[in-house]
Amino acid sequence: MTTAAHIRRELDAVTIRFAGDSGDGMQLAGEQFTSATAVAGNDLATLPDFPAEIRAPAGSLPGVSAFQIQFASTDIFTPGDEADVLVCMNPAALKTNLNTVRRGGTIIVNSDAFTETNLKKAGYAVSPLDDESLKEYAIHKVPIETLTIEATKGLEIPSRTAKTCKNFFALGLMYHMYQRPMEETLAFIDAKFLAKTPLIAEANKRVLNAGWNFGDTAELGSGFVVPPARISPGTYRNIRGNDALALGIVAASVRSGLPVFLGAYPITPASDVLHVLSQYKHFGVRTFQAEDEIAGVCAAIGASFGGGLGVTISSGPGIALKTEALGLAHMTELPLLVCNVQRGGPSTGLPTKTEQADLFQAIFGRNGECPIPVIAAATPADAFESVYEAARIAIKYMTPVFFLSDGYIANGSEPWKIPDPDSLPPIDVNFVKTGETVQPYERDPVTLARRWVKPGTPGLEHRIGGLEKADKTGNISYDPDNHDKMTRIRAEKVARIAQEIPPTETAGDPDGDVVVVGWGSTYGSIEAAVRAARLRGVRAAHVHLRYLNPLPSDLESVLRRFRKVLVPEINLGQLSFILRGKYLIDARGFNQVRGQPFKVAALTQAIMNLSEET
Amino acid sequence: MTTAAHIRRELDAVTIRFAGDSGDGMQLAGEQFTSATAVAGNDLATLPDFPAEIRAPAGSLPGVSAFQIQFASTDIFTPGDEADVLVCMNPAALKTNLNTVRRGGTIIVNSDAFTETNLKKAGYAVSPLDDESLKEYAIHKVPIETLTIEATKGLEIPSRTAKTCKNFFALGLMYHMYQRPMEETLAFIDAKFLAKTPLIAEANKRVLNAGWNFGDTAELGSGFVVPPARISPGTYRNIRGNDALALGIVAASVRSGLPVFLGAYPITPASDVLHVLSQYKHFGVRTFQAEDEIAGVCAAIGASFGGGLGVTISSGPGIALKTEALGLAHMTELPLLVCNVQRGGPSTGLPTKTEQADLFQAIFGRNGECPIPVIAAATPADAFESVYEAARIAIKYMTPVFFLSDGYIANGSEPWKIPDPDSLPPIDVNFVKTGETVQPYERDPVTLARRWVKPGTPGLEHRIGGLEKADKTGNISYDPDNHDKMTRIRAEKVARIAQEIPPTETAGDPDGDVVVVGWGSTYGSIEAAVRAARLRGVRAAHVHLRYLNPLPSDLESVLRRFRKVLVPEINLGQLSFILRGKYLIDARGFNQVRGQPFKVAALTQAIMNLSEET
Amino acid sequence: MSDHDLPGGHDEPLPKYTKDDFTTDQDVRWCPGCGDYAVLATVQKLMAELPVRREDHVFVSGIGCSSRFPYYMNTYGFHTIHGRATAVASGLKITNPNLHVWIVTGDGDGLSIGGNHLMHLLRRNFDVTVLLFNNRIYGLTKGQYSPTSELGKRTKSTPMGSIDYPLSPLAVALGSGASFVGRSYDVDGKHLSGLIRQAWEHKGTSFIEIYQNCNIFNDGAFTSVTEKASKDAAQLRLEHGKKMLFDGGRKGIAFQEGRPVVITLGVDGTEEDVATHDAFDADISRAFALANVQVPEYPTPMGLLRAVSRPTYESLLHAQIDEAQKKKKADLHALLHGGYTWKVEDH
Amino acid sequence: MSDHDLPGGHDEPLPKYTKDDFTTDQDVRWCPGCGDYAVLATVQKLMAELPVRREDHVFVSGIGCSSRFPYYMNTYGFHTIHGRATAVASGLKITNPNLHVWIVTGDGDGLSIGGNHLMHLLRRNFDVTVLLFNNRIYGLTKGQYSPTSELGKRTKSTPMGSIDYPLSPLAVALGSGASFVGRSYDVDGKHLSGLIRQAWEHKGTSFIEIYQNCNIFNDGAFTSVTEKASKDAAQLRLEHGKKMLFDGGRKGIAFQEGRPVVITLGVDGTEEDVATHDAFDADISRAFALANVQVPEYPTPMGLLRAVSRPTYESLLHAQIDEAQKKKKADLHALLHGGYTWKVEDH
Ligand SMILES: Cc1ncc(C[n+]2csc(CCOP(=O)(O)OP(=O)(O)O)c2C)c(N)n1
Ligand SMILES: Cc1ncc(C[n+]2csc(CCOP(=O)(O)OP(=O)(O)O)c2C)c(N)n1
Ligand code: SF4
Ligand code: SF4
Ligand SMILES: [Mg+2]
Ligand SMILES: [Mg+2]
Q1: How far is the alpha carbon of D310 from chain C, nearest alpha carbon, in Å?
Q2: Contact D140 CB / ligand 2 (< 6 Å)
Q3: Residues 6+ apart with CB under 8 A from B470
Q4: What is the CATH number of the domain that holds B595?
Q5: What is the DSSP string of B322-339?
Q6: Is C29 near chain B, with CB under 8 Å?
Q7: Which among D79, D99, D340 has CB closest to B463?
Q8: What is the least distance, in Å, from the CA of D244 to any CA of chain B?
Q9: How far is B457 from chain D (nearest CA, A)?
Q10: C-beta atoms of B594 and A349 within 8 A
Q11: Which of A339, A457, B98, B173 would be A313's cystine partner, CB 3.0–4.6 Å?
């Protein structure tokens, strides 16, 4: 590989963003760049940004697809507030992404695409390349399409086909700029194309190299180096949240010995979990694409009744439909894993955007007294461990458990240190066996879980259902005192899950001015903002909750070690309300509902401001 | 009518309870006694207590049906903690109702029914009439069946038929005991039977009189007088909560000029509202028995879109199913009245019992940020005015509104001072008219309500839906800032409803030790308990909330005038949690989930205890 | 409906059962006189005869009077939520295909709120049996009309008469591609028992409509079909391979130009013209024609309308799982290490 | 589907419309090449021809690519939630029977999550028209199989092939007692337009299945039926009163013993034997037989299978309201004073 003659500059962290038409392969370029960056040993975080349409008209504003990555030589936690470099494949991409670039940042445009038609589709009267509008940025006009076609000359493929390789040109250019290794991508091209379409493989490789070489010769400010981060040793892979979620479920199945039954109905952004799990039939995973969300959850309840690990997965509107059935799972005290990959709401809302506004629904959203434990993932990789934990608790406590992810976690990816399966906490399943004299609603004294009896077991025939049960026998009971008692037992069982929760960790100062409490995918922005605020002199700490119901028993005392409590959420203040109600602590919200992660700068400012309040 | 020769004693308040087999007509007897008592000018409160089964086997424990009424010469608020007199038609009724009678109370048993078979069905080894088990009560064995058949002698009806009149014997006996006027019941019998079955009419009347006369001659301690209460002048009728609810909806229709569309699916205890409204076709009411609850609410949304008053009604499990559609109503900002007649939960729970455990669901139970106003009825008669208010707000603010009733309100009844329709608050509807240039999501500056455009209006064609809307135009928008803005506008619109709420009333002391905050059907028990506590020296007040979301703006300041806040609820602490979260006030719950109203004595004790805490 | 091998794991011989073995200690809480009692007795008796262990039966129901059924069967049982028994049973059957799964539902539970799940259950063809108790009314909620109530019916929710055109449960089932469709009624225990047994033998989803009298809210809904005096003329007792005769052989059903017609023998035609019932007809048309006729214009068909054989959902699914397992080892370590991985060394 | 009187309150004459009057300013966001475009154009053109004011049309849809339809029609429109357009439309039509209500749904929206509401809409017979865009795939969620996908279909959610037996939308509709059932396809604008117009004229619920190509996730799903070269042999173009001939008159459909069979003229029979299509047949059997046949064994029927006349739900409901209003005055004061009342005097 050629190395550049230019002076290399070391950078701490860089954010780059690829943007183009949905048909331009920007997600692919972004994913490849991510892998190469991971291999280069940087810490990183990514943000894919899809259009809502399947395939909006080419060149149109709604058709723009983007992918952002931040990578660094130190720990980083977010895909970056602003891009240092934006790669723009057409005018529409420039139009919709310009506000994501920092002032003074670099913009690389595919100048071939700035035709009159495309400019018009993007709503430009004059080309922004020709007027003053971009003067605050370093603009590089690169005729990417021409160069791409040039690079494939001599191969017998039509120029229309050749043009589709242009994302690899952009990728090659960025690889050069940030000195990423290209082996991984070259191997990927071969794996994907060599067997079936060797010409395409060759074309892509040539174009990739042409991009690199172009960077080498053009004066684009190449040769930036972001040295490797100090990352704990181990084997890594890059993982998307939805994949981690699916793997966590399979791991829970293997470790518990229970076959997974997934009852689900497709919905953005949860569908991929159905797709991925349907490929794991060799693990005995049964995926059932139901006729609707109600059937999905009910079939999962049936599976759990039959002695399987019932799982259902959906997003806001679909979760809403499952509400009634969750009451049944709660009443019959069967294990059930309910995954909600949250999206923008209410109603159909913003299906492709992220949001954290379903926490109230998870904790409170059922008829009757019907507490359900709630566990949330913090990052794409964390989805593995946290969903595993959710499954473990569902089985151990014989209860439905809500697992919350969101669109940002689902489609985002990060390097994941692959755990040793044997190091995962054990999941013991203890079906009642023939001959044991157990009543269906007898309970474990520690967990209050009832015992699980598998149909087919001789001598233990019994009936369960949604009517109130008599204590121990599980027969129908209309007795007032029994109802009060059972309602409290079910609540107490869920409350006891607190005994599973490890001591609350604070990242930052052990006490002081502001504790920032978060949950879910805001992990990265909060961590970054707390660090920034501490650098600016605030005594602050970050507490990130995996367990949202019940809350950790030590949480109140942790919060009380700080003068102020700030709760940033991508909603209008749900966890903050719950903390207030539980602890009578004046938890303040920092809330935005913009379908996007927080900007670290804004959050840092909020911490600074609160720390100054007396 | 004969009058008793015995000395009359004046009593302040009396609680009597009729109990028998489902086939024994106890509800009818109870209702008649209620009417007669209302006419006698007493204040009263009732509690019907049905079996869960349609028709459990005759004489069995689950087949017992009871009706309790308290009436008094002063204001009373509950059907009574304990019965002074229990009328028992068979052993099963005695068995299941004995614990409702105060020690020393009177029990009148139909001794004819204490046969060996019946005793066995009730699980008595020996007859309780023959052993010592009832020695703490004043027992009167009356061969009611024999006396009933006796009374109908000479009429050409089979003795099996004659026997079915026995509830009138019991009723006549109680009428004598408490000196109620019988005219109302005699008229009722004629209205019901005279035309079709004159012999039955005659039989019932004879038996009723026989009961009275028996009381007159037997030494049952008759001649108690409960003098009339001081009741504000006006025309009264006795009304059940479900009837009041239906009437309130019709009144809102008449006053707004909007036709009612009720989309509903039968469910206990809400079905009666469907039944009653289906009889009001002459008011243009359209009732639609949908295929399920989802279709019910969706059809109601369609009706509102079409310019009608969309209403849906259900109970817990059915409300759960409507969750997704409520998001649509919220997003499209259409008026919609959602009535939840709560029952025991979770899941199928205890369908025929009362509970207040769906408050969380009403306030929090949807995906996304989706606030919906919540209004609750306090008593059966109050259902009229409060559901009217709920409809008014739905229309004025262009929003779905939750109206909460419960099984106790639904089936309970009380005297209702009939309002003058013209005195009801006006409901102005202001459809956009042809020629007005209004955008679909332009808003009223005061209420933030968008304008309502009726399909069919020329020139105003537009499209709405569940995706996020652009401000003003209502077109689809994926813009992050627009989403944040619209989410806040919708929340602010609901918050502004607080401007409709009258100043919070406190009953009792204006400040002091304990303020007891309630909502819904606990009104009576709380009012009675607060009065009792005040008599015992506590400075206490009762605040009963009709508006649960938003809460009254002055509520916090009212609560802060007291040292302690007690929140009694038939749940595990839902309103109390909300008050804590909102105001950071240490609101304490008094919670029972027994499917029954509170006992005044227990609640009084709780107030006393809390007042003693420092 | 069964896997005819006895379910795995049992070494002992099948016990000799009696009806009592299938009776629970719970008080039966239907109204005295309700048709549900007769069905319960028939099913309990049949259970004692089937070569299936008690613990391998599961009765799954929704909500309704009829859906109380599982409480009275001394087997495994699940009284789920309204309309969803079919969905719950699907997950159960996939999880343990050895179980004998019975679904008990009503005309409201199965055709109103649960209509969609029923349709999809039938097309998927799980090896389960659906017993739909059709009393043409909502019993448990005390007497509203149901999707099978006749037009003009006055009920609590339709004081001026219902205006929804009723569904034929059998037509819905055939419209959904059901593989086994039949009808019987509560008090003809022998006929009902025979049909349920056939259903149990059928591999795939069997759908049986059971006319059931609700003596409280819809008494006599089926007397015109079932009462002794007229039942010969009112019922078309279907038997495979037999002519479709009724009314003591005086009348029959013929198919003319694709349409079913009643012929009086010796008047409109001869026995020759009468169609022969083919319960296993590959073509669905005739079964559907039968599903749409009823008294008074036609005799009401009773018995098995149609059974066709088609692989069951769970067998296809488990075949895919087997195939996948043959191809690939279930190695969790390997799965977690899938895709591109890299090592970070100590430094 | 219409009340043929113009809706009340308009004095001015009906404007002369063009297709453009029915086009909105919203960018159409279907994939280039999607069959939805053709249907949209056909419907917009037809709207300009119907004697209905623009403001009296309402397009109600669920969720899916096809369900975006209302945004592109310059009429009133409601893009509701997944599967519920039918229910929303029911409430709308009852509230204002003068509106011309169109329901746009997909094979997922209408037959998967929305199957039950569709079934009940059809039996109730509201005077509305359902356009079900059948592309045999879930488009909007990017390519999972749908209830109409063929067995064995490999999709994102069925990597080893789907195992659910597909539904025939027309069979489901007839099984539910639909009063108007037909089929057409995206690119045959003339045929489609004619069928939709007939549907609009029908008083009652009209159900039209529209074969629609999803060129992204299920390209060519219907080519065997619709492509020029083979369509003559592959389609049975139904016309009332005409013989059921196809393949240029070389073949025809006959009913034998109640079953549909393909006959080759001159080989298995003559034109005499070929059935004549009766689109208004009182008996449902033949229409159902046609709903269940398709290529390759049979030609796929196109056109109106069956239309029968039955009172609409809203007309029956409003008749009851009228009757009630004739009998009883709507006097709120009297209503509130219903039952036994008593006066309490000042004291
Ligand atoms: C979600 C929900 N909606 C409504 C109900 C009330 N409900 C219980 S059973 C029933 C209908 C019963 O009718 P059917 O299925 O015909 O059974 P039957 O009682 O006639 O045997 C209804 C509406 C409920 N339990 N849950
Ligand atoms: C309650 C709910 N569940 C799931 C979804 C996701 N979803 C949207 S459209 C769709 C299926 C679309 O298929 P179809 O109706 O065939 O329409 P097409 O896109 O093919 O035109 C699904 C599953 C949703 N929006 N809401
Ligand atoms: S209401 Fe009808 S169906 Fe229900 S138990 Fe009674 S008789 Fe049977
Ligand atoms: S995904 Fe298919 S159905 Fe949807 S717009 Fe694209 S081509 Fe049309
Ligand atoms: Mg029924
Ligand atoms: Mg589709």
Answers
A1: 9
A2: yes
A3: B441, B476, B477, B479, B482
A4: 3.40.50.920
A5: HHHHHHHHHHHT--EEEE
A6: yes
A7: D79
A8: 38
A9: 6
A10: no
A11: A339
The candidate with the shortest Cα–Cα distance to A6, out of A135, A177, A128, is A177
B476 and B380 within one domain: no
Q: Is residue A279 part of a domain?
A: yes
Q: What pLDDT shows up at residue D54?
A: 97
Q: Based on the structure, what is the number of domains in chain A?
A: 4
Q: Which among B400, B423, B446 is the end of a domain?
A: B423
Residue ranges of domains in chain C, CATH in brackets: 19-221+311-336 (3.40.50.970)
> Amino acid identity of B369?
E
- In sequence order, what are the residues at sequence separation of 6 or more whose Cβ sits closer than 8 angstroms to the Cβ of residue A40? A71, A179, A180, A181, A226, A228
What digits encode the pLDDT tens for the residues B504-537? 999 999 999 999 999 999 999 999 999 999 999 9
Q: How far is the CA of D148 from the centre of ligand 6 (A)?
A: 9
- φ and ψ at residue A426, rounded to 5 degrees: -65, 150
Asked if A461 and A561 sit in the same domain, the reply is no
Please indicate if any CB of chain D lies within 8 Å of the CB of C64: no
Whether residue B583 contacts residue B556, with contact meaning beta carbons closer than 8 Å, is answered with yes
Chains that touch C (3 or more CB pairs under 8 A): A, B, D
**Domain assignment present for A232:** no
Tell me the ipTM for this assembly: 0.94
Is the C-beta atom of C135 inside 6 A of ligand 3?
yes
**CA A16/CA A29 separation, integer angstroms:** 12
Same domain, A168 and A249: no
pLDDT of residue C305: 98
Nearest to C275 among D147, D171, D257 (CB): D257
pLDDT of A221 reads 63
Do B522 and B477 share a domain, yes or no? no
pTM for this structure? 0.93
For chain D, positions 234-263, list CB contacts with chain B under 8 A: none
Say yes or no: B466 and B559 in one domain.
no
User: For residue range A85-129, what is the model confidence (pLDDT) as tens digits?
Assistant: 999 999 999 999 999 998 888 999 999 999 999 999 999 999 999
Q: How confident is the model at residue A205 (pLDDT cuts 50, 70, 90)?
A: very high
Nearest Cα residue to B387 out of B318, B447, B338, B315 = B338
C58 lies within 8 A of chain A by CB? yes
pLDDT attached to residue B9: 62
Q: Which of A250, A109, B529, C320 is nearest to D163 (CA)?
A: C320
Tell me the CATH number at A372.
Answer: 3.40.50.970
- Give the CA diameter of chain B: 86
Partner chains of B (3+ C-beta pairs under 8 Å): A, C, D
Higher pLDDT among residues A38 and B303, named by residue: B303
Among A467, A500, A533, residue at a domain's last position = A500
pLDDT score, position A3: 38
A496 with A563, same domain: the answer is no
Confidence of residue D4 (pLDDT cuts 50, 70, 90): very low
> Is residue B232 situated within a structural domain?
no
The tokens describing B5, both together, are 């020769």
Ligand of minimum distance to the alpha carbon of B53: 3
Please identify among residues 8-37 of chain C the ones whose CB lies closer than 8 Å to any CB of chain D.
none
Q: Are residues A591 and A549 part of one domain?
A: yes
Distance A266 CA to ligand 2 centre (A): 7
pLDDT at B57: 80
CATH of the domain at B164: 3.40.920.10
Residue B230 lies in a domain: no
CA of residue D219 to ligand 6 center, whole Å: 12
CA of D84 relative to ligand 2 center, distance in Å: 11
Q: Which residue of D has its CA nearest to A262?
A: D157
How far apart are the CA of B297 and the centre of ligand 2, in A? 20
In the predicted structure, residue D3 carries a pLDDT above the cut 60: no
Cβ contact C160–D324 (<8 Å): yes
Q: Residue B105 sits in which domain range? A: 4-225
- Look at the alpha carbons of B415, B420, B424, B428 in this order and tell me if their dihedral is positive or negative: positive
CA-C214 nearest atom, ligand 1: 20
Are A296 and A349 within one domain? Answer: yes
Q: What is the pLDDT of residue A538?
A: 97
Contact A478 B350 (CB under 8 A): yes
- What DSSP character marks residue D8? T
The span from the CA of D103 to the CA of D65, in Å, is 14
User: Is the C-beta atom of C211 inside 6 A of ligand 3?
Assistant: no
